[in-house]
Structures are given as C-alpha cells and as structure tokens.
Amino acid sequence: MKRLFSSKLxxxxxxxxxxxxxxxxxxxxxxxxxxxxxxxxxxxPLTLIGEEVADGENIRKTDDYLIKAYDVHGMEINxxxxxxxxxxxxxxxxNKELTSYLPKIISGKTVVxxxxxxGYSAQAIIIGQPLVQDNKVTGGIYLLKEARAYQAALNxxxxxxxxxxxxxxxxxxxxxxxxxxxxxxxxxxRKDYVANISHELKTPLASIKALTETLSDHVVKDQEKIDQxxxxxxxxxxxxxxLISDLLELSRLQYKKTAYTKSIVNTKEIIAKVSEPFAILAxxxxxxxxxxxxxxxxxxxxxxxxxxxxxxxILLDNAxxxxxxxxxxxxxxxxxxxKAEIMIMDNGPGISKEVLPHIFERFNKEDLSHTSTGxxxxxxxALEIMEQLGEKISVKSxxxxxxxxxxxxxxx
Length: 412
Prior knowledge:
Its main location: membrane. It is found in: Membrane. This protein is of the alpha+beta class and 412 residues long. It folds into three domains: 2-146, 2-Layer Sandwich (Beta-Lactamase); 179-258, Signal transduction histidine kinase, dimerisation/phosphotransfer (DHp) domain (Helix Hairpins); 260-410, 2-Layer Sandwich (Heat Shock Protein 90). The chain has ten helices and twelve strands. The two termini are 54 Å apart.
C-alpha cells in the first residue's frame, strides 16, 4: 500500500473515484429536479382534489393519474363517482404500498417519492398529503402518475453513464499502464545512469591511483618514464574534471536553474568564431573542413549567443571525433520563413539503427566499450540547451554514410 501511494498511482484511482461519484450525483440530480418539477405541476391539482374529497364530493377518473384516499385507519375512501372501489389483488398491492406512508401524512407531512408501485407502474411518482376536514386531519390522499419521462431520462443517463464509465476506465487503465511503463523506464535509466557514472569515474581514478602508487613506491627510476606517468595522470585528471563539469552542467540544465537571456545575434559571426579552432584542428587531423556559402550568409537570429556557441562546439567536436583521417566535416545551413537551420555533417562511420533513437541520452556512445574520448554527456547537454531555448535538435545517420545534426534558430 505504501508503494502504491508513494508512486502516485493513487492519483489515477482518485480520478476514477471522482468520475464515478460525479456520475452517481448526476443520477440523484436528475431525480431531484424531476421530483421538484412534478411537485410544482401536480401538488396544486392534488390540493384542489383533496378539498373536494374532504367535502364529500366525487371526482371524475382520468387516464393522466390515479387518485387514492384513505382514512386514519387505513380504509380506502372511494373518490370516484363512476365506479366502486376495486378489490382486485393489483389494487390491494397499491393500497399496501400507499398506506405505509399514512402515519407520516397523518402527522401533517407531505410525501413525495419516485419508485416502483406494485400493481400500478414500474416507476411512478407518488405525492401524498393530509386530507383535512374542519381543520382536522381525517386521512391521507395520494396522486400517482407514471414516471415515463423520468424513466426514459434515467435510462438515457445510465446508458451515457456506463458508456462514459467504460471509456473513462479504459483511458485511466491506459494511463496507468503508460505511467507504470514510464516509471519502470525511468527507474532503469536511473540504474544505468548510476552504473555509467561509476564506470566513467572509476576508469580515470583507477589509472591515477595505479600510476600514483607506482611513483610513490619509487619502482620506476627512469626519468622519461616518470614524466610519461605524470603526463598520463594529468590527462586523466583533466578527463575526470571534464566529466564532473559536464555532470554539473547537465544537472543545472535539467533542473531548469539556468535562465537564458535572448537577443538578436549575428549567426554568421557565431559560426566563424566556433569554426576557427576546428579549422586548425582539421589540418592536424588531415580532415577536410568546409563552411558552405549558405552557412556564411545566414541572417540574424533571436537566441542566446553563448548557448548556441556551446551547442555548435559540442556538435563539431562530436563530428571531428568520429570522422576518420582524410574524412570531411561540413557546416551547412538553410532558411525557411521563420527559422534558420544549421547542419553539422560528417562522412564518418555513422550511427547504428539500434543506438540512433537513444543518441541524446546520457552516456550513450556509439562505441559501447567506452573507448572513445569525452564524457558521453555532450549531446544530452545540447538537447537540454535547445529545448530550453525553445528550439529543436535532430539527427540523421546511416551506417558507413555519415551523420548530420541539425539545430533550428528563430529568425530575428
């Protein structure tokens, strides 16, 4: 029970309970308003008939309703002038039902009920009030009218009720199934996240520890070897620092604690500034690096310059990382009526179909052995930034045919 409430599944059950309660209240409301309308319609003629019966007058029978009257002892009074009191069993059933209200009526109260009256109707409205003669209650008089309109309305309501109940229950059950599925998925993601963090932190720490112990024990005497060990320790420390920095950055983004100020930015200048260090890196890595004329002539956009610079840097770094020697990385662009799109394309090995749907998740790397450099958080950070800017980031890739990442920016 505790797990049920802690997982907030109770919300769905509360919704279902409120839904059913609302439908039942609707049924009571129909009965209430129907009863009130019939009181307003039938009580005045019943009062008039009661005065006539009290004065000893007979009334004419009508097909619209049935009039019954009884003295204080429960004996039926003949109110019709055209026929004697019936002694059939069906009439006796009606009398038995009506005389059960007699004590209440003799005490001066009015009775209004909608219920089945054996021998008369499946559903009938009953209005009963005292029979008064010379300011003294001498019995009770009743008006019975078949409640066909009420029954039809109630049947219609019940039909709607059960149909909507069935639909509502199905929707809530689907919601519950999706909720449980999503909960299980998030729980699995949490476990994977912890496992991946442990793995990513463990690797550089293990290297630093092993090399530090070796240096501390003075096992290595060769100065060149000692310098190499220090170089590895420094490199692993930088890697560890980058991982922790990216984790903190992603955490801040996901908890929406970072506010972005948007302004009109020179998109061409951003691309030129971001591309400059990568152009130097391309020469060192024997890669072709191209910026198309469309990218060089992009219009101004409305965004956050620092964050767009960060996203483009992540995407270019990713492209350079996975593009082989003599490969090609291209920055291209296109514009629509309201948006500018920047594409970072490479002709590297591409992303497999299995990994592509999860490429923006934390620690998802194409090489699952974690042999690639980087924290595995860059694309997750890029996604969070673009979502908080109200923009989109997407990816298209084909195995052995390269990858294209696309971001959108609102034109100024």
